[in-house]
Amino acid sequence: MKLTGAQVLIKSLELCGVEVVFGLPGGAILPVYDPIIESPIRHVLVRHEQGAGHAAQGYAQVTGKPGVIIVTSGPAATNIVTPLCDAFIDSVPLVAITGQVALSNIGTDAFQECDTVGITRSVTKHNELITDPSDIPRLVREAFHIATTGRPGPVLLDLPKDISNLEMEWDDSIEAGWNDPILLPGYKPVTEPSAEDIAAAVELIRAAERPVIYAGGGLLKAHASDALADFVELTGIHVVTTLMARGVFPDDHEKCLGMPGMHGNYTAITAFQQTDLLIGLGARFDDRVTGNPEFFAPDAKVIHVDIDAAEHGKVRKPEVAILGDAKRAVLLMTEALRTTGLGDIDRTPWNSTVSGWQEQFPLGYDQSDSGFPLKPQFVLEQLRDNSPRDTIVVSGVGQHQMWASQFWHFNHPYTWVNSGGLGTMGFAVPAAVGAKVGQPDATVWAVDGDGCFQMTGQELITASTEKIPVKICILNNAYLGMVRQWQELFYEERYSEVYLSPDVPDYVLWAESMGCVGIRVDKAEEVNAAIELANSINDRPVVIDFRVDEFEKVYPMVPAGGSNDVVILGPEGDAEAAKSGVAPS
User: Is it the case that residue 582 has pLDDT exceeding 70?
Assistant: First the structure.
């Protein structure tokens, strides 16, 4: 039968198992929107294309399925560059379909024309301009294959309007061969680690006196939570979970040390500094973890497991580089250690040392008995303790992101969604919408700052009209808080362009105007009642404006560009941080 390119595209998405897409129509993509009417695919109409991209990311992070975006050409395509870049750095599988002007108009500066393929080349795993409708089935299959295999990431297909309207012959052979192997010369991700590398890693593990597991987000992409748990159960090695790996190993496990890095906890940071063997699993030695690489884990040998060969030696040269799927590597190391035995190294002194750090340097804050000013950490603890244990927490970027990672207890994988590598403000609200679409039976809380919220808060309209009952916690300190913290420490309290009005906008009225429930909280004694009310409402989104201490800072803190041996535990260390003279980048 004859189908238009647009019809073929939607049929191809259906055959790939797509259940939901996030998008916004426009001229060049209009032919594609017509067959969506008859398709079983759910379309979530966002209010800005950037929101579509972040919603697709949230969906992908909690389901493991690729998020799908459909937008038009020109400004719509450029509006998804930020989420594409975000997904590229954080290894989130996305498939983006962008409209394009007709082939004959490309290069003429036609209305809403831009070089989408050129613009997005550096922020996608692969992208392609479609020039023949008969190529669409193959290119869609390849897009999903590339996005979800190897190191996951975004793929973009740019579809000219005339190609959408051209017809092609759709026959039964296309559908019959849909699940045939996909052969792409030059694209052959290595998933099976070599036996020699596994053996070399096992020998280092057996000989280590102070080993630490550096668990990265790649473990979640590899669905390796159970494999990691078995490995730790066998070896007794402590686990440090990066910002992107929170939940891959339970925070309430005695061997979990929490988050490392610039705003990690003292034990996690110091365990890295004093380890003699760093077992990196799906982590990329990010600068927020290592600080100055010259001083990072100075006495450690390194095992680095990663499915992307480009990560090996990029920041730290490993003694053993294991190329392959992180889950397979962990399973093979576990199997080998069961065969060879764990060795005769006594790690009791190391375990005792680590326990001592945990007891001596816990996370803390000071909430006054009067309940004012309201501390953001207190809000998050109450939110954590009064929400289901498997609540999905979606964060924006800034101080609130760090407090959420520090004070929430992540005991389940795929319950923490945030923008890690790119650090995209405005991520939380649309990503929470996507997460709730992906896991409709889960409680989804977005933890946002007032600065972040103002960037993409219009997506509450999407949540309201599409009946997606997300819950939003705004930690409103009337500042771009993290920037203000840096200016206070490193710029002699010269607060340049960081103050935001605590009263404009009125977040309660904002929420109500968009069909949500709005609540305002000023004191600690009001927190629990507001949370209980929010958790009881499941027929519409809820926004709570928590008016928190405007000058609260995130601790611990490792000044950027320095050594992780210098950990500022609280305000008493501010002078030492300022003395470093290195402003965070």
Answer: no
